TrEMBL record, chains A, B, C:
Protein name: P2X purinoceptor
Gene for this chain: p2rx3b
MF (Gene Ontology): ATP binding; extracellularly ATP-gated monoatomic cation channel activity; purinergic nucleotide receptor activity
Keyword ATP-binding among UniProt keywords: yes
Cystine connections: C95-C143, C104-C127, C110-C137, C193-C203, C237-C245
Transmembrane segments: 311-336
Length: 372, 372, 372
């Protein structure tokens, strides 16, 4: 029993060979210093490994656009500023189709299309005159058909519109809340101020022209075909310092592929408003518009000192300091003066051994002898 | 002083026992080979540990739906294709309520509800005739009340509608942009092509019927009650290879629970349009519609070779190679032939020791003797 | 050749010094026990390191709001319940401007503003009478101009509105789907039940007043200026247990900064509906409304047993058990009784050595002697 406990309580420590050589000693200490510098400088100070980090940022964004000619001033994360390209009034009726694939000479050409959906209506199966020279299959739908080739009037005055962004964030791990403008600002300040990347990052009013410029886009080209601009609000907060939680804005064009291809060169859409007149006829106004769309994207994380990651990284640092011995051993056993002697000292071969029993002073001693 | 420096510059290396046994040697090298194979094969090649990875993908999505009968062709990330189930015209007026809990026989039954909101109006407190046999508490609201039991006409022609998806992504760490169709495609190609999972993944035009089929849904059942389909665009890019950044599409039904329960079996909603007639009366058209909603979800990451993760993982690999000695030591000291001898060689017990001083050739030598 | 193979197949194991001391033995085993307890208790049981984790949750949310006076019952992830603050009818016409910065005495004061956009129209350059005492620059736009100072009627009855949330989630790695209410619930139950944080978390019907109260907000104050409430649905699933995948709801006010500042104290927006009258004049109804907006935020992850993370963490555990020797060595070599002897045993200095060649029994033996 006692032997069991003694066996359980034995402690093994590795045997070491001590080398008193200035060369290898200096190399060893230099390598250890590099490792410690890496941990202190990079891991602890730069990567802030002594902090616990909250990446689950909660964010709410409220936006307003102000400027004359705003049609739909909705308050969502995605703003749409659009200009009407063409507005056409349609009447729900029977009329000749428009698509060149529906040309015909007589009703039998159209009968195969009966009740199949086309772009603007369901085909009736009859062939009717489109103009003096051409006949088309008749559709029951919104007449006349849409025409795509009216020149746009770019939305120049949009450049002076202003966007108000109110972003409120919270880090739930620390119950810390902040907003993108100071609670102390006054109504007058808000009415007059303008966001500036260099001088004034605390004003939440952005001029559309400025935002487009910060995203390195030419406003005229962007307004011509439309596009999507991203307003990124990044929050990198260090809660150990008293005032180190501020938003940093960056602006980028999100639909970069629009600039490279001719098929879908920008951002446009259609919508229709439907009316019923007194006599019961259905009308609709079809609007095709180009738009600049602004997506507000919020991300961020916050860190605060915590004992657990600090301890874990300190243990990792101390453990890593010993990694240098791999390099030092290679130098010691191969390149240093007296390497052979060190090698002999470090490595013991297991060979056949004998021992002599020697009687001395009435005690028996065991003397180990190594074969050559 | 000099002793201090010498002490600081000592170097300790562990003493090793060298075993020249083919058995344990082969086991050792096999274990090391397995560890190296794991690192090279899995960590470096499969997991691409030599690359730095950017997971903060920036994405913009623009969608269009084309097909006759599209009521609201909005251009958002979430498309709604709906079909009208029932359209009811209401007039703002006083009329009998509808909900069976508001049955009454006289005004006093209704007086407790006065000015409390019901489903379709505020109760006036009076009890009026609903039909020849029943009386209900009167509401001031939108009359007549909504009726829920009209059979739907499923939206069969929706199967042929087409969805155009333009997705532009950017990896900010590498300033790399790409889109889901090639910039060289022509207008004609776009007008005719159709997305196909096998043959044609570069066409951004998707037929609704195809999308529903790829999501393993039956179109008739889905159209009957509505549902939500997710179109997932995944970007896994390896920027070290010249053409390895392409979107991979997958389609799934997001509201799986709709299929399993009877209470809320799909996706439907109501909206109302409000009118004022010439005589000043308020009217509304209440529309209840079923819809198929398409959510476009974009995710992805990109990797590119970088020296720092490569070095860190190489150091981890080299350090891990030594882990095999744990297993080899167990075999060496317990199962190998001659295990006792190895054990004796490996472990030195600390026992009482004496030394003999021996005079030889005018120099004193210290000879250590170990007790049995 | 054979020597090469033999050299390649040598195995090195570190030499160890065995200390049979109860003190250091107990300290060693206690430290090892602490390390094992940390791994078993924290890493394996608490952090579930034996599981592979899927964080890419797919979620779809469908919401409905019910209650009298709902104007726009859209079915999106973001609900807007708003109350109309003021409704003004405008006519597109020429009229005096409203903004005090456009006061004037004669046309020349206004000529500098010609064709520049103001808040409600483009200035014509003429100076016209605003009232008996004041003249303003004329605008061509929506007249009369908006007035901001009408008292609101808070939306008290909104407190009893109900929100129905249907959330369906899927973990693609395990192809596991779940919803926030049981598929077995009946229509009657849904019509009557009400969500309760304590007693009834399986009813998907939420009273607006309850949600606001759970978010620790005062309904009257919130309704007065509007605000944004977050409904967070968290899914932490352990798929090794049979019924451990349930949603946990939390409610929070997302626009905390609204409460602290006077400039933008809540959540309000404007929209306009446009009409054309029979005589061709354009009219619009401008509505300014305060709203409570509800954002539904879904997140979560699921874990399931997997051999790979189990093995990796077991290897890490075993490797870490040896870290305790750093502390034990410090105690052994500095503080324990007999420390000097242990130090002498553990460290071997490399010094000049000589050996004696001894002839015994016709075999030559090498006897190493260490200098003092």
């Amino acid at each position: 029993m006692c032997t069991c406990i003694t066996d359980f309580l034995t402690y093994e420590t590795t045997k070491s060979v001590v080398v008193k050589s200035w060369t290898i000693g200096i190399i060893n200490r230099v390598v250890q210093l590099l490792i410690i510098t890496y941990f202190v400088g990079w891991v602890f100070l730069n990567e802030k490994a002594y902090q616990v980090r909250d990446t689950a940022i909660e964010s709410s964004v409220m936006t307003k656009v102000k400027g004359f000619g705003i049609y739909n001033n909705r308050v969502m994360d995605v703003l749409l500023i659009y200009v009407v390209l063409v507005k056409i009034v349609h009447k729900l009726n029977n009329c000749p189709g428009w698509n060149l694939e529906f040309t015909c000479t007589q009703d039998s050409n159209c009968s195969k299309y009966v009740n199949k959906p086309g772009d603007y209506g369901i085909l009736t199966g009859r062939c009717v005159s489109f103009n003096t020279t051409m006949k088309m299959c008749e559709i029951k739908g919104w007449c006349p058909a849409e025409i795509d080739t009216i020149k746009t009037t770019p939305m120049m005055e949009v450049e002076n519109f202003t966007i108000f962004i109110k972003n409120s964030i919270r880090f739930p791990m620390f119950n810390y809340t902040k907003g993108n403008f100071l609670p102390t600002i006054s109504s007058d300040y808000i009415k007059k101020c303008n966001f500036d990347m260099v001088n004034n990052t605390y004003c939440p009013i952005f001029k559309v022209g400025d935002v487009v410029r910060y995203a390195q886009q030419n406003f005229t080209k962007l307004a011509d075909k439309g596009g999507i601009i991203g307003i990124k609000i990044g929050w990198l907060c260090d809660l150990d310092k008293s005032d180190d939680c501020n938003p940093s804005y960056s602006f980028t064009r999100l639909d970069a592929m629009s600039q490279k291809n001719a098929v879908s060169p920008g951002y446009n859409f259609r919508f229709a408003k439907y009316y019923k007149m007194e006599n019961g006829t259905d009308y609709r106004t079809l609007v095709k518009a180009y738009a600049i769309r602004f997506d507000v994207l919020v991300n961020g994380n916050a860190g605060k000192f915590n004992m657990i990651p600090t301890l874990i990284n300190m243990v990792a640092a101390f453990t890593s300091v010993g990694v240098g011995t791999v390099l030092c051993d290679i130098i010691l056993l191969n390149f240093l003066k007296g390497a052979e002697q060190y090698k002999a000292k470090k490595f013991e071969e297991v060979k056949r051994t004998t021992f002599l029993l020697v009687l001395y002073n009435n005690t028996v001693y065991k003397m180990y002898i190594i074969y050559i």
